[in-house]
Structures are given as structure tokens and as C-alpha cells.
Amino acid sequence: MNDTTVRRLDPALLMIFQETYRTGKLSLAGERLGLTPSAVSHALVRLRDIFQDDLFRRLPHGVQPTVRAHALAPAVALALEALRDLVQPQARFEPSTTDRCFRLSMLDAGASLLLPDLLAGASSAAPSATLTTRAVTRDATLAALSRGDLDLAVGYFWNPPAGIQVEPLMQEDYAVVWNGSTPPPDSLDAYVAARHLLVSSDGEPSGIVDVTLRKLGRRRKVAATAPNFFVALAAVAEADLVVTVPRRFALRWADRFDLSVTEPPLSIRSFTMAMAWSVDAKADEGLAWLRGLMAEIVAANENRPAGFPTGL
Where would one find the signal peptide in this protein (predicted)? Predict the structure, then answer.
């Protein structure tokens, strides 16, 4: 059956076929559908033309399905059920009973701070839900949100494109991390003289620090790049390197690698960590619940001490 034929097959015809098949009587099929026997008869003429088969043979007390009609009946039932599901109002979201899989994106720096509490909160409120997280670039994340391949992303989303909604979570700045075996990079000269590790998902050895230094007429030596922030901390723990990372991440994890933390000796532009999602999901109650849970976690974390250690 080609597309031209399919366009002739509207749902009303399928409903008439189904009721005629069920009842075996045109009058009863019409009664159930609020149609006259004549309207049912005319619909069957159209169905016979579409399927190139009699479909129903007249008997003294009704009609009898043909072999072709018997073969069509299960498929017609499935098609009508699919159409009913399509127009059925979406069920209200209930965290305690949902088995939905929420698809998130965030880099490891943000995930290490937010995901533990998010998983704990979701496990308590929505025990049958699943949360999957991936780490991809900003552009890939925005494209995935637009396609519907992601539900929610957390990151730095400057100038979001049309169709993407962004809600700020927190303002973030930077910290400098090193292993303590060399003098602290707490002056601009010492900072520039140090060998730097740069976190870069695409391997590009330049970032916001380099942009800031160029404005000051200075340059630093980027000795290597790392694909994520935890790899960067592990590398700095074993080498005489300096890495500049988001402040909350540094204060949360530097001790685990026996690393030291200090403020940058230059003013680096801060950035806004935010949630992003597709505007097409504005009526998604499940996503609204997840965003609310994320906002609660951020608010709770903001009440924890996050200053730089003294004496560094």
C-alpha cells in the first residue's frame, strides 16, 4: 500500500471496519458509532476500494468477513489502539511510581558536586527512576537537547540558541591547584613562570586564562592538556604542574589528592553554572520535578562553607 492509498484511509473508516467485524451487522455497527446504516455501507464501499477486496459478504441476517477481513482485523485493532494512545492525555507525573529514565549531561567538575546528592534525592523520592549522565561539549549538549536526546544539562551556557531554556544555578569562579613541592603560584610572575595543565575536552591548549593573560600582555606555558578535571588533579599530584579549575571543585577534591589550593593571582571572569533544557519540554512534569530537585541541592550546597583555606 503506497502513501497515496494510506492518505485515503482515515481513522473513521478503520473504526467502521472494526465495529462491522465485531458485530456482523451494519445497523448495529452504525448504532455503536452514531452512524446510519447507509453511512456504514458507504464507508465499506470505500474500504473495499482501498483494500481491493469485498471484506464483508452480505447474509440474510448480517454480513460475514472475508479471509482478507480476518487477516486485517488484528492490524486494524493495533492501529486504532495506537491512535487512542496518541490522543490520550499524558498521565500526571508521580515520583514515587515513575520508572522513567532521565538523561542528563554535565562535566565531571559539576557532576562530582551535584550528582551524589541528586542520586540520593532521586533514590528517596523516585526509587524506580533511572538517571543517566554523560559528559559532552557545550555545542553537542545543546544539539542533543534540541533533538530530544537529553532531558537536562548542567554547565556554562552563554548565548543559548532559540529553543533552549536556561535557569541559573550558581555563580562560579576559579582556584589554582598545585602539589606543594614548588613555591605557591600566588603572584602573577610565579603563576606565569609555572608549567600549566589545562583541562580541555577537545585538546585545544588555550582557554579563558590565556585570554585573560593576553589582555595583560602576558603568556603562560601550557605543558599538557587533560580531558577532564579529575584526570587533571591526578596528573598534578604526580608532576610539578599547576592547574586552574572551578573553585568549588578544587575545594571539594584537592585534599583527596594531597594538593594545595590558592586564589588566582589575576582576575579571571567568573561564570554562571546553569540548567538547560528544551522549551519543547515546558509541560513535562517529570522534568520540572528533576529541575526542582537540582535547585534544592544547589541551595543546600550554597549554605556550606566554601572559602579558601587560610595559610596557603
Answer: none
Dump pLDDT digits (tens) for 1-26. Answer: 566 767 788 889 999 999 999 989 89
Does residue 309 have a pLDDT over 60?
Answer: no
Residue 105 in grid coordinates: 549531561
Q: Whole-angstrom Cα distance, residue 45 to residue 251?
A: 77
The residues near 296 (Cβ < 8 Å, ≥ 6 apart) are: 121
Q: Which triple of cell numbers denotes residue 96?
A: 514515587
- 205: exposed, middle or buried (Cβ count in 10 Å: 0-12, 13-18, 19+): middle
Instruction: Label the pairing between strands 195-199 and 221-226.
Output: parallel
Type and span of the H or E element at 110: helix 108-125
Global confidence as pTM: 0.70
Catalogue all structural domains in the chain, each as residue range(s) with its CATH number: 3-87 (1.10.10.10), 101-171+271-302 (3.40.190.10), 174-262 (3.40.190.10)
CA terminus-to-terminus distance, the chain: 76
